[in-house]
Inverse folding.
């Protein structure tokens, strides 16, 4: 009987030791997964920063700086406004004269629907 109890004690001890090993293995696995996740996050962030830098270089190379684009648009707007001002100055007087001619030269006529009684 004592040998049976001793055998049971050995089995219980072995089971406890195996459970501890399994628990430790699970902990190691969780640590490895967390470490892999952290490394992947760092790698993704580095990749994103690299792509952002490359895009900004491409944008600066092909489109110029944003200030340069804004300055070009502003200059184009000024040129167009100056052209409009010149057009107004050159066409203003003839248009006024034409409108005045319509106002001054009124020829009274009887409307075609008017019937004399």
């Amino acid at each position: 009987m004592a040998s049976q109890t001793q055998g049971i004690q050995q089995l219980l001890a072995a089971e406890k030791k195996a459970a501890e090993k399994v628990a430790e293995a699970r902990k190691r696995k969780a640590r490895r997964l967390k470490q892999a996740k952290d490394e992947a996050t760092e790698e993704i962030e580095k990749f994103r920063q690299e792509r952002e830098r490359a895009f900004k270089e491409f944008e600066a190379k092909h489109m110029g700086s944003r200030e340069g684009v804004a300055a070009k648009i502003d200059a184009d707007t000024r040129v167009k406004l100056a052209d409009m001002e010149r057009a107004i100055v050159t066409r203003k007087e003839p248009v006024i004269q034409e409108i005045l001619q319509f106002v001054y030269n009124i020829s009274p006529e009887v409307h075609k629907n008017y019937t004399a009684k």
